[in-house]
Amino acid sequence: MPFFDSHCHFDFAEFNADRAALWQACNQQDITGLLMPGVTPVQWERAAQLCEQYPGLCYAAGIHPHWIEQQQWFKKNAEGFLDESTQEKIRTLICDEIAGSPTCVAVGECGLDKMIATPVALQQQLLDIHIDVANQLHKPLIVHCVRAHNELIAQLKKSRVNSGGVIHAFTGSYEIARQFVDMGFYLGVGGSITYERAQKTRAAVAKIPLEYLLLETDAPDMPLHGKQGQRNSPEYIPLVAQVLAELRGVSCADIEAAIWNNTQTLFYRQ
To answer: Which helix (H) or strand (E) holds 186?
Structure first.
């Protein structure tokens, strides 16, 4: 079965010099699918162009909380939240993008991140907007979470996601993983499991049923063990799959088949 990288910033400038050669190398390893998450509307346009150039690529439309305050049309109200015009702008942009592009298959990435300057309350409001749009369009949601599992779980219990989604770059315990899965989410498994020190995450992905897992690189970020300081790449997806197979005590072929099926089910409703 082929591989699919469910979260790769293949449109970022780090790949400009060798993108064509790299995708060819990926195809030679049976890496035939890749999703580029959305971070800003300007970036969506670049992702859409790449989808036309390279068969197998798709993308999502979303505004990462790190970049929301940098948008030219961003405005806050007196309480420090997104004003009505900004809320409507976000909804319209995402809806129009997905309606206008067959390769735009999801909403996101969006979520909560306690390591950035954007106030968490504003991030939560932004996340709710993405959830509403995803539910309206019947599209899966790509969720970013950094040091905010408890807050995210509480919000997702209150604002239900109807068409599923993926917790990108999952790192956490089995107990946390189970809560996300019970709410209809897949877990994005990436380079973090290649580090032996990530004991809780490794234990979680070894125990959670395979039908709730996806593979990802988050390239060019999140390098695998032994490749620290290097540009991460979608061509390393088979290495992540191999580690996952070892942790679960199954063959890599079993991982490939299950993950491919999961990817198609979530993003293409097959």
So the answer is: strand 185-189
pLDDT reported for residue 4: 98
Q: What is the CA radius of gyration of the chain?
A: 18
Summarised one tens digit per residue, pLDDT across range 100-109 is 999 999 999 9
What pTM did the predictor assign?
0.97
Residue 174 tokens read as: 């089995």
Extract the tokens encoding 226: 């032994």
Q: Determine the Cα–Cα distance for residues 173 and 262; give it in Å rounded to an integer.
A: 21
Residue from 191, 200, 125, 181 nearest 158 by CA: 125
CA distance 90 to 256: 36
What is the torsional sign of CA 72, 78, 81, 86?
Answer: negative
| Structure tokens, 39 | 């971070």
Query: Per the structure block, which two tokens stand in for 135?
Result: 């539910």
* Confidence band of 269 (pLDDT split at 50, 70, 90): confident
Structure tokens at 103: 């390769």
Sheet of strand 3-5, all strands in order from the earlier edge strand to the far edge: 3-5, 31-36, 57-61, 104-113, 141-146, 165-167, 185-189, 213-215
pLDDT at 225: 98
Q: How many Å from the N-terminal Cα to the C-terminal Cα in the chain?
A: 15
Distance, CA of 12 to CA of 6 (rounded, Å):
16
Contact (CB, 8 A) for 154 and 180: no
Q: Is 187 a residue whose pLDDT tops 80?
A: yes
